[in-house]
Design goal:
Elements lengths: L4 E7 L3 H12 L7 E6 L6 H7 L14 E7 L2 E7 L5 H15 L4 E6 L2 E3 L3 H6 L7 E9 L10 E4 L8 E3 L9 E4 L1 E2 L4 E4 H7 L11 H10 L3 E12 L8 E5 L2 E5 L6 H17 L3 H22 L3 H17 L6 H7 L1
Length: 336
């Protein structure tokens, strides 16, 4: 193969967004060679939509094992991999990147199911294949209204506590191409030779910061370039997952209790990364303690289910310290 590209799309119960994502990929001005759809055991009949739109030629058997179906759409190879359980975004990307690597594609284009590459998105990236020291190419990420999502592209900062990265600024988007350290798994094109050196995404993370962890490893073997004329839209960037609450004239953003489980993985994974990579452990532990105390105060002042929330966050922090990756724990603490 010669600069062959396989897109890896991880999906879970978002079939309408997935359909739009796949349509964006199929209609690139520079054609892809393959699209691998990793279905995290969706329950919204994602497979029926894919069958109707001819992305799969038959329906899976649902026999509690990993199922793989293949077909071609407009000369693009489609591999549908349905997992027997939901492994989260990190587990899905692990499976997808591994499959694409084992099938010998030169580049693996990683993205969520709610990512919509503009028509020339891949074409703009291909202009920089010749950069031999480059192991990753990242599109500029915007929301559905075209506003730049600065916090999804950035640089490492291991000299302080948390966070261990800072996001790009407007100045970083004014040139055609720019060096960066990390990009979220929305429009990150990774060279195969880099994967051969660093391996696959860390599936134990489940969701959140798996892209940051992978980029740390990726930067250890080469450079990541931000290509500002390559534009990818992200639906999630247009959706707010919190609500505003006012008490005693103080306005704060809070996470609804039924969505709180998501916060566990970010807290745990960032603490794990901080302990592994931060070069200023005093600042790190001070920041963790400060954040934990502020979280407790916020719960006591603003939230419902106070005791469960406190137990939930305490476990997230401790699991990050102890490298415990029990990914069912979050929902068990909150809802069982």
């Amino acid at each position: 193969m010669n600069n062959s590209v396989c897109a890896v799309v991880v999906t879970f119960n978002r079939k309408d967004l997935l359909k739009k994502c796949l349509n964006s990929l199929i209609n690139q001005t520079t054609p892809l060679q393959a699209i691998y759809i990793i279905d995290n055991n969706s329950t919204d009949k994602t497979e029926e939509l894919l069958y109707e739109d001819k992305y799969i030629s038959e329906l899976p058997k649902f026999d509690n094992s990993k199922e793989v179906l293949e077909t071609f759409v407009e000369n693009v190879r489609i591999k549908y991999i349905r997992l027997p359980e939901n492994l989260g975004g990190a587990g899905g990307f692990y499976e997808g990147v591994k499959a694409a690597y084992e099938d010998n594609y030169d580049w693996v284009w990683i993205m969520d199911d709610d990512a919509f590459p503009t028509k020339t998105c891949l074409e703009e990236l291909t202009k920089y294949y010749y950069l031999e020291d480059t192991v990753g190419l990242a599109s500029l990420k915007v929301d559905l209204d075209g506003n730049i999502l600065y916090h999804h592209r950035g640089f490492f900062n291991f000299t302080q506590g948390l966070p261990i990265q800072r996001h790009i600024t407007k100045e970083d988007t004014l040139t055609d191409i720019n060096d960066i350290d990390m990009a979220s798994f929305v429009g990150l094109l990774v060279r195969r030779k880099a994967i051969s050196k660093i391996g696959f995404p860390k599936k134990e993370f489940f969701i959140h910061a798996d892209d940051l962890e992978y980029c740390i490893r990726l930067r250890s073997v080469g450079k990541i370039k931000l290509v500002n004329h390559s534009i990818i839209k992200h639906a999630e960037g247009s959706v707010k997952g919190t609500f505003e609450k006012t008490i005693f004239g103080i306005k704060v953003n809070r996470r609804p209790y039924d969505k709180l489980w998501i916060n566990y993985y970010m807290q745990r994974n960032l603490i794990w990364l901080g302990r592994k990579y931060s070069k200023n452990k005093i600042s790190l532990y001070f920041t963790i303690l400060k954040n934990y105390l502020m979280t407790l105060v916020g719960i006591l002042l603003f939230d419902d289910h106070k005791l469960k929330r406190i137990k939930f966050y305490t476990n997230a922090y401790m699991d990050g310290f102890k490298s415990i990756f029990e990914n069912n724990k979050a929902k068990e603490i909150l809802y069982n």
